[in-house]
Design brief:
Length: about 425
């Protein structure tokens, strides 16, 4: 190899990584740095050091992790190095990277409180939702309950199944903002009939950022003999996820949002007792030889450098700590919601209850068109946020959410949050120019 990397050296690396890369050395150094005295870990200096590990554009307040997160520099460097190794010796080095899959599966499983035999490595939550939907046996007339604020990746598979197989999909109304956790549980309970077989719901919806009381809904489902499927795309990497404690039957998630893994990585949890009832959606060589979750990710050739980078994303978050990350996210988002609620003309769609929200805040101004407000924030305050509009993408929302969504992650700062608030105050008062 021109770079001085031999296959022999590549294969001699420790279990901690797929190749002895300088990027791995950088990540190890980062992990050591994060193990500073506990008292130091909550000050601004600590989070400034964390932020330096990202390639975020200078001056940009990137507040759209709910769509796609920023990949840490060590993770990006590792992935790029893996792609280089693939270019230098495609087949052999691909095989070496592929050989890391089971170690990565085990690490990902531990991260969400599952056994490795219960976790498949997919591309994203959309793929996982479709696999579960199409893989479970249901009869014509069987009912599936979904929340009214589901992302299309959890709505459209069920609607397609309804067209093809005659199942019935019922949308359970969730308020904007939701009144309380119990109100959400009660709404699902009222919707259950003798034909209901499945509840499929977002752990945190992408429209308003409302965290559903998933554990209570799971208990309700199981008490009625129903299956409970969860879409956790907006949770992994933002809050701690323990699928065993939640007692869900399946849990799908995307890793390119709050976990900050490169796009193209996702996880699917299917509890052991259900795996013989959910069929794989792709059948390729040797898929039948697996009786556990590995049968769901047998998709032959795939971008192994991206899969390998998932391990580094998991390590990056573990170096900081899930509890610390969740605390930081909540500090930023709760400050933003509290101050935004004091601004005239602001309408919040996200609950103020900290048990019902995390890093996402959806809101609007009743005196300014959302598109104009978003454009003003981008041009005058260098703030990048997401639009929330009613219509084809979110047709089921009973209250017609129209506005914008602000996502605060651990690499964001209070100064960036203040920029949004300053812009909102100017817009609300009519002094924006």
């Amino acid at each position: 190899m021109h770079s001085g990397w031999s296959r022999r050296a590549f294969l001699r690396v420790p279990v901690a990584g797929a190749a002895a890369l300088s990027a791995v050395d950088v990540q190890t150094a980062f992990a050591r740095e994060m193990k500073a005295p506990q008292a130091w870990k909550f000050d601004a200096g600590y989070w400034d050091r964390v932020r330096r590990n990202f390639h975020l554009q200078e001056g940009l307040a990137y507040l759209n992790t709910g769509t796609v997160g920023a990949t840490p520099a060590p993770v990006l460097a590792a992935m790029n190095r893996y792609w280089q190794l693939m270019a230098e010796n495609p087949n052999e080095n691909s095989a070496v990277l592929q050989g890391r899959q089971e170690a990565i599966r085990a690490k990902a499983a531990a991260f969400i409180g599952a056994d490795a035999a219960e976790v498949a490595i997919l591309r994203n939550a959309s793929e996982g939702n479709s696999l579960v939907c199409q893989g479970i046996d249901l009869a014509k007339g069987d009912e599936v309950l979904i929340g009214s604020l589901e992302h299309d990746s959890n709505r459209q598979p069920w609607l397609l199944r309804a067209k093809r197989a005659g199942i019935v999909v019922k949308e359970v109304p969730i308020g904007t903002p939701a009144e309380s956790p119990q109100a959400i549980v009660d709404a699902f309970e009222r919707a259950i009939t003798g034909r209901t077989k499945v509840i499929s719901v977002a752990h945190c919806d992408t429209v308003t950022g409302t965290i559903t009381p998933l554990k209570q809904i799971a208990a309700l489902a199981h008490s009625r003999g129903l299956l409970i499927f969860a879409d956790g795309a907006q949770m992994l990497g933002a809050t701690r996820v323990d699928v065993r404690d939640l007692d869900v039957d399946t849990y799908t998630t995307t890793c390119h949002k709050w976990l900050a893994s490169p796009a193209g990585t996702g996880l699917l949890y299917i509890r052991k007792g259900l795996q013989d009832r959910i069929w794989p959606s792709v059948a390729t060589e040797n898929w039948w030889s697996y009786s556990d979750a590995r049968k769901y990710d047998r998709v032959s050739r795939r971008p192994w450098p991206v899969v390998a980078a998932l391990e580094h994303a998991l390590d990056f978050q573990a170096a900081i700590g899930q509890v610390r990350i969740e605390q930081r996210i909540r500090e930023l988002s709760q400050h933003f919601r509290r101050e935004a609620a004091r601004i005239p003309h602001v309408v919040l769609y996200t609950p103020q209850d900290p048990t019902m929200s995390a890093g996402i805040t959806s809101l609007t101004l009743d005196n300014v068109a959302p598109d104009l407000a978003r454009e003003y924030l981008r041009l005058h305050h260098d703030v990048y946020i997401a639009a929330r509009t009613k219509g084809e993408r979110y047709p089921a929302d009973p209250n017609g959410v129209t506005g914008f969504r602000v996502s605060t992650h651990f690499y964001n700062t209070f100064e960036e949050v203040e920029r949004v608030l300053t812009g909102l105050r100017a817009l609300a008062s009519g002094t924006a120019s």
